[in-house]
Write a structure and sequence with these properties.
The protein is of the alpha/beta class. The protein is built from 13 helices and 10 strands. The chain has a domain of about 220 residues: Alpha-Beta Barrel (TIM Barrel), CATH 3.20.20.100. The chain has an 8-stranded parallel β-barrel with strand order 3-4-5-6-7-8-9-10, surrounded by 4 helices. Strands 1-2 form a two-stranded antiparallel sheet. Strand 3, helix 1 and strand 4 form a beta-alpha-beta unit. Helix 2 packs parallel to helix 3. The longest helix is centred in the C-terminal third of the chain and has 17 residues. The two termini are about 35 Å apart.
Length: about 325
């Protein structure tokens, strides 16, 4: 298998693996990965393939995903310098004022402490504002996030699913007050959803050195091709709490594009999963593509996307453009 590539996270000196491993949907889910032992097997397979970045969030399984991942780190006996780990804050865990769907100072300062306690860590490498909060002044959020870095609870901070204007506003405030600036954004990015990364953020890569750790490279499984004939039993769309995916996964127009993409993958002799992951990794503005898996075997399969990248010639990429944009 092709050796892992590492890219700098934006304009920082931090190197993250081009393919990373995230725990959304899978960790602390009885239908996916319920125990630290299962999680450890996935993490171990990922690290064996060269992955050094592991993504998480307070909102995944109401904090239990962080706990499971922390247990796995300890079970594997990893040294803290061996991996990069993230969390994301916004949704909150407590149904009281100031603790839900916010980026105010009170919530952020307490939420990071809760994440670190669940992980069993002294600090996370990356912390993201998981969504924008129009009800809290961006200046308040920027000061709180910068203080988090100053206190040593995180090393870098960034955003997730923010608009280019919101990111630039946060950067400008930090620059003006000599605070720690937002370094990275975590947007959804795949062949069927690409406007933010390919168009909206274009000026930010050069202007502020924005890095990206992208999520849902397979469009919640749509780009594996397994939904071409309906929703199979045991797939993500059948999981409790993920019923909202059904409309997207059964959309006729989207599945027509998936079928057309599968023709290209078949011509290259690779799976649609490998092809779709490799396509995301081809973008030089993507620092890391976050992959998900519920077994070590699936982790290893995802990592073979690195072998497919050399097959994605300019001609192949142009064919993908014609499918995805029209």
């Amino acid at each position: 298998m092709t050796d892992m590539q590492y890219r700098r996270l934006g304009r920082s000196g931090l190197q993250v693996s081009l393919l990373s491993f995230g725990s959304w949907v899978t960790f602390a889910n009885a239908d996916q990965i319920e125990t630290g032992k299962q999680a450890a097997e996935c993490l171990d397979a990922a690290k064996e393939a060269g992955v050094n970045f592991f993504d998480n969030a307070e909102g995944y399984a109401a904090g239990e995903s962080e706990r499971v991942m922390g247990e796995a780190f300890r079970e594997l006996g990893w040294k803290r310098h061996e991996y990069v780990v993230s969390t994301k804050l916004y949704w909150g865990l407590h149904h009281v004022p100031n603790m839900r769907n916010t980026l105010n100072r009170k919530y952020l300062s307490q939420a990071i402490d809760g994440s670190l306690e669940r992980f069993g860590l002294d600090f996370v490498d990356l912390v993201f504002c998981h969504r924008p909060d129009p009800k809290t002044p961006i200046e308040e959020t920027v000061w709180a996030m910068s203080d988090m870095i100053t206190q040593g609870k995180a090393l870098y901070w960034g955003t997730s699913e923010w608009s280019a204007d919101e990111i630039r506003a946060a950067y400008d405030i930090a620059d003006r007050h000599h605070l720690h600036k937002p370094l990275m954004e975590q947007p959804e990015y795949n062949i069927l959803r690409r406007d933010k990364v390919d168009k909206e953020y274009l000026r930010l890569y050069e202007d502020i050195g924005l890095g990206t750790t992208t999520w849902s490279p397979l469009s919640s499984g749509l780009l594996t091709g397994k939904y071409l004939n309906g929703i199979p039993e045991g797939s993500r769309a059948t999981l409790p709490g993920y019923e909202w995916l059904k409309g997207m996964l059964t959309d006729e127009g989207r599945n027509k594009k998936v079928a057309d993409l599968k023709v290209i993958a078949d011509e290259l002799g690779v799976s649609l999963t490998q092809f779709s992951l490799a396509w995301c990794a081809m973008n030089p503005h993507v620092s890391s593509v976050i992959t998900g898996a519920s077994s070590a075997a699936q982790v290893r399969e995802n990592m073979t996307a690195l072998d497919v990248m050399p097959l994605l010639t300019p001609e192949v990429m142009e064919r993908v453009d014609l499918i995805s944009y029209f």
